[in-house]
Amino acid sequence: MIAELPDTVLATFIIFCRIGACLMLVPGYSSTNAPAQIRLFVALAVTLAIAPLLLSSVRDLVVGAAPLSILSLIWSELLIGVVIGLTGRLFFLALQTMATAMATAVGLSNIPGTPVDEADPVPALVPLITVSAAALFFLTNQQWEVLRGLVGSYRVWRPAEGLSAEAVLIQLSDRLSETFLLALRVSSPFVIYALIVNLAIGLANKFTPSIPIYFISLPFVIFGGLVLLYLTSYEMLLEFTTAFSQWLAG
Questions:
Q1: CB 201 within 8 A of CB 217
Q2: Half-sphere exposure of 19 toward its Cβ, with a 13 Å CA cutoff?
Q3: DSSP 179-220
Q4: Angle between helices 188-207 and 213-249 (to 10 degrees)
Q5: How far apart are CA 177 and CA 230, in angstroms?
Q6: Partners of 113 in the beta sheet?
Q7: Measured between alpha carbons, how far is 24 from 82 in angstroms, rounded to an integer?
Q8: Phi first, then psi: what are they for 29, rounded to 5°?
Q9: Which of 54, 71, 142, 177 sits in a 20 to 30 Å window from 13, CA-based?
Q10: pTM
Q11: Is the pLDDT of residue 181 over 50?
């Protein structure tokens, strides 16, 4: 048993490479509001909790393996963890991008908000939407689905097989198109609202060029945008949370 201890520790570290890399990027766990030491401790705790389920598939790869093979395995596991975490992160990055477009559509782009997960200031509407989505991530217990998906990833991307550059590009490009189509779908009412409002303001400005229509209409545009947000926020967040949970389940 003592002779097998170094191999067990090395296999656990290799499992940690995939889990730690994923949790440093995946939404919820990777929040910058949590100190890096806390996130590292969570990654270690998760690794030790699920390592007994995965040791059998990893220990055989390190027993008697050459140092170069172990180093290649470590880099492969880090890459797989980064791909999984970044894929989940794309959902929230797409939502943040479209939330910025929504703030511009309703005239709130010039009102600065307090950055939550970002270092740069963003419009006030963006943290409201992204924090709500992050809260639903935990309220719907999707953080446990992330761990279940990590365990299941060992059946899809086996440590011995690694991950090719072509597979990484296909995975990221597919998810990138899927996430931005999802974000465009949930923000489509605001896109349509912006088109109608800007067309109406442009026509009114043509008929009355001596009156500053844009500045007069700005409070009404903001009020209409807030009413639209009140009416569509539930369906918007429900659609986003459902799509994200379906990706986790897959």
A1: yes
A2: 26
A3: HHHHHHHHTHHHHHHHHHHHHHHHHHHHH-TTS-HHHHHHHH
A4: 170
A5: 28
A6: 122
A7: 8
A8: -75, -30
A9: 142
A10: 0.78
A11: yes
Residue with tokens 């009413």: 227
8 Å CB contact between 37 and 124: no
Per-residue model confidence (pLDDT) at position 3: 47
Phi (first) and psi of residue 123, to 5 degrees: -55, 150
Q: What is the pLDDT of residue 120?
A: 67
Considering the chain, what is the average pLDDT of its residues?
A: 80
Q: Rounded to whole angstroms, how far apart are CA atoms 227 and 163?
A: 47
Q: In 3D, which of 130, 4, 17 has the Cα closest to residue 75?
A: 17
Tokens of 139: 């309220």
C-alpha dist (Å) from residue 166 to 74, 140, 163, 170: 19, 34, 8, 6
Gap between the Cα atoms of 55 and 159, Å rounded:
11
Q: How many CA atoms lie within 13 A of 62 on its CB side?
A: 22
